[in-house]
Amino acid sequence: MSVAVIGGPGSKAPVSGVYEILDATGTATGERRAVAAGERFPPTPGRGFRFRLVRKVEAAYTSASSAAAIEETMSTWEQVFSRLAER
């Protein structure tokens, strides 16, 4: 499933979620940022870098810190489920 590039640093996030940073060639850098709908994307490590939505965070979360907490929780659960699947 391909997800469109959303925007660059300083542009507004259309939806709350976790966004990955893409370098100037469109390759994922491995860095992610939680951004709430309407907030501006933060600075990136280099010129031409952009953001792509990885996980949408539903309406109850209205700040980047809320989205970050959800991302951390989801990562923890993904790790738990992954470990259980290995057994």
Structural commentary:
With 87 residues, the protein is an alpha+beta fold. It has one domain. The chain has a four-stranded antiparallel β-sheet with strand order 1-4-2-3. Strand 2 and strand 3 form a beta hairpin. The model has no long low-confidence stretch (mean pLDDT 78).
List how many beta strands DSSP finds. 4
Rg from C-alpha positions? Answer: 14 Å
Given helix and strand content, the structural type is: alpha+beta
Strand content: 25-35%
Compressed to H and E, one letter per element, the order equals EEEEH
Strand order of the largest sheet: 1-4-2-3
Number of structurally distinct domains: 1
Unreliable stretches: none
Report how far apart the termini are: 29 Å
Helix content: 25-40%
Question: Quick check: average pLDDT?
Answer: 78
**Biggest beta sheet attributes:** 4 strands, antiparallel
Helix tally equals: 1
- The rough form would be described as globular
Topology:
Layout: E1 5-7, E2 17-22, E3 28-35, E4 50-56, H1 64-86
Antiparallel strand pairs: 1-4, 2-3, 2-4
Give the structure's gist in a few sentences.
The protein is α+β, with helices and mostly antiparallel strands.
